[in-house]
Amino acid sequence: MTTKDDFREAGNPMFNDNKLKLGVFGTNCSNACAITLAESTFEPTFEHNVKIARQLEEAGWECMVPIARWRGFGGPSNFNGVNMDTFTWAAALSAVTSKLQFFSTTHIPTLNPIVATKMATTIDHISKGRYGLNLVTGWFTPEMEMFGVPMMEHDTRYEYATEWMEIVERLWKENGVTFEGEFLRVKDAFSEPKPYNKQTNRPVMICAGASGKGMHFTAKFCDFNFGFMQDMEAGTAWVKKVKDLARTEYGRELGTFTSCPVVVRETEKEAKDYYDYYVNQKGDWEACENICEVLQVQSQNHSPEMYQKFKERFIAGWGGFPIVGTPEQVADKLVTLSGTGVDGALLTMVDYNKELPFFNERVMPLLKQAGLRS
Ligand SMILES: Cc1cc2nc3c(=O)[nH]c(=O)nc-3n(C[C@H](O)[C@H](O)[C@H](O)COP(=O)(O)O)c2cc1C
């Protein structure tokens, strides 16, 4: 079995000694994670992504995680309507960087497991082991129905995903794989090269499954569970729950990652005013409504009441816990976040081009002083 130590020994950034690992989320898509019409210089172009990746590397961040998306969510912003493919995105970014970890987020039902294995392994080699898969099963019905087949029922999607992963895992280790499942069949299948890292035999695997089935799938196959935190108390409970599940049911160590929209400004007033501007004044509530409507029906991880309460959070950063304030306040909040036991956070910003340099210059040194990062 692949362990945390195998990845650590191989020098994979996701398993380094930093107590709170950091990444960015969604820069392959228009508006990334902020459902807003607020002005931004950020565009989901390869050039902007290279610029972001280089700044992250220089400041010692761990990873970039893209969003798997095939169509926008409507509203005046058509939120996420421009969305780069996450495999070719990761391959190209890996080729022009040397330290950062990249993920491809893949909708399992849209991709044959042999093709996925081959593409993932190829990027794993291009990046020299700085690569991973973020596994999603799909929840946005119009997006999944673009592929000409009805979307599977929620739990069936994870049963399908389980067969898919069983094939992928075997192809990473053996040749001549034959598999006959309820959903998938492969006959005498080969995939070479094998994964770059001979200790782990596979790239890093993450999944944001939040339902019972989703958490079991993650605990069985993945290295990290991604989840949103309503507050620190709920966050602490979630971290404990998934780690316990992985240990007791599957004898595995599971890490956790969350996601947070961040607004950091010289003064608290400036930060709060900007948060109010991009969320309350300029938020694309129509696109947000479209997302929440589908999620309520198709995903089991939230109650309708909670959706109402957290619509604002969706606009701010796709449901992540907002961190707003001066550099000192933001660093303090990240220390508190780390106190939940979470291993890392994907930070989302409205304008990465303008906000990331300020975060690196002013918040990063404070995180080092606080012992969260070396
Ligand atoms: C941090 C994070 C990232 C996610 N990224 C995507 C994505 O890129 N594409 C997608 O269709 N779903 C994405 N999801 C949705 C999850 O895959 C999952 O469906 C959701 O958390 C509900 O869990 P469940 O499937 O177990 O009900 C993401 C969720 C989280 C928390």
TrEMBL record:
Domain Luciferase-like: start-end pairs: 41-343
InterPro entries in the record: Luciferase-like_dom (IPR011251), Luciferase-like_sf (IPR036661), SsuD_RutA_monooxygenase (IPR050172)
GO molecular function, a single term: monooxygenase activity
Pfam families assigned to the protein according to its UniProt record, in alphabetical order: Bac_luciferase
Keywords assigned by UniProt, alphabetized: Flavoprotein, FMN, Monooxygenase, Oxidoreductase
PANTHER family xrefs: ALKANESULFONATE MONOOXYGENASE (PTHR42847), ALKANESULFONATE MONOOXYGENASE-RELATED (PTHR42847:SF4)
The name this protein goes by in its record: LLM class flavin-dependent oxidoreductase
Species annotation: Rhizobium phaseoli
Record lineage: Bacteria, Pseudomonadati, Pseudomonadota, Alphaproteobacteria, Hyphomicrobiales
